[in-house]
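Our preliminary data section would be incomplete without showing what the modeling component actually yields. Below, a chain of 508 amino acids is followed by its predicted structure, encoded as tokens that our downstream tools consume directly.
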Amino acid sequence: MESIRLIKPSLKPIQTKSKLAMEAAEDEPLSPSARLFHEPNFNVHVLSIMGSKSRINPQVIKEQLVHTFVKHPRFSSLQVVDEKNNGEMKWVRTKVDVEKHVVVPQVDEQNLQESPDKFVENYIHNLSKTTLDKSKPLWDLHLLNVKTSDAEAVAILRIHHSLGDGTSFMSLLLACTRQIADPDKLPTIPGNKKRPIDSLDQYSTSKGLWPYVTKVWSFMRLFWNTIVDVLMFMATTVFLKDTNTPIKGRPGSEFNPRRIAHRTISLDDLKLVKNTLNMTINDVALGVTQAGLSVYLNKRYGGDKKDKGATEKNNNLPKNIRLRSTLLINLRPRTGIQALADMMAKDTETKWGNCVGFVLLPFKIALRDDPLDYIRQVKATIDRKKKNSLEAICTFSISKLALKLFGIKTSSSISHRILTNTTLCFSNLVGPQEEIGFYGHPMAYLAPSSYGQPHALMINFQSYINKMTIVLSVDESVIPDPYQLLDDFEQSLKLIKDAVVERGLCLE
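Predicted structure:
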């Protein structure tokens, strides 16, 4: 199509390993983490939903996939059961027929029985009822040339979680894109800024006994918080459950299809709050989530009352609600998009895979008079969890140890109990700072999600240029109105931003 700017020269193939190294690793066994995702209660599929500003040319996509995406060994290998080795699974390279992985349904938009947005949403909902065919590499790409309210077309990349973690998938996806303004350049994403020198650092440069006291105190606090968090983790595995709120998943929720809804908000609004209160985007996103969940649950608890308008103003929330999220923490260092591209270019054995720990993050569900209290409270919690505790590293290590000592079945059962005893899963991914094209197709938004997890609610925040997309993956039997929840998130951000502006806190 003339409206699509083709990439010239073509994207360079993703280099993975030398031919000799690839032949040596051809029968490489699946890692224990990868095997875990083949258990019936952990059959998780990751989705990357991409809105395009132009209609998608399937032929261009297929031609470019051959030279980039399928060059990665994980996406050109079968997962085969090795009967000679106690039924263990191994990677076996195979020739990829792109035609079998790219699905292009013929859609007559004029004869749609529903709105285009609803059609795409229902398509993804029906997709979540299926699993990937194990007779070929576990990924596929669906191209829908349907004009929605926020895109001219939609692409849905589906990948089995056994192939790697979300950060790995995002790195691969971004390595297949280029900047629209300069088709020869990879996208750029914000790097991790160094933490400003705080009071403890200042004391460490002073003379005398005080620097040693502060270091000992910091170590003791880190040690104590880690012990407490690990004990809470173990208690959650055995008996400690979240309150049965209206958004908590029921037994067997992982087998139910998912309704995936998204809402794009202004990233500048989040940055205004972040800069004013000296926080991170992740702090603000979690604060907005806590506020939105509180408002939504208040409505659900008051749903049986006659005057629903009055119940929204009244406090219908039970006291002492225990509601926790598994917060995904990437344990792989990230310094920018080039580092993510290098992850796939070389040494994929050590740099590709499932390398994610998680922390159990409690949300304090309550209606607050001051909207900023939602963010202040969650910031204090996440600072303790991420800066003054080794919970993420410990949970990752415990999971690996359980796999080695007790095997896949027991480890799967332990991990499943952790998730079913908590309420939701949350993640926040940083996206490109400039507009990018997926094989020459300008992207309108990125919306990552998944299905197959025990939680009835999964929340993903994904930034892209000056936008932030909130993506919900919900079990409709538990959360029948995901757009109401998105409304509550959006309204909560507005109230928080307005509170900052009205008090004259915002910086000039």
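DSSP finds 15 helices and 15 strands in the chain. The chain has two domains: 32-179, 209-432+453-506. Preliminary results of this kind motivate Aim 1 of the renewal.
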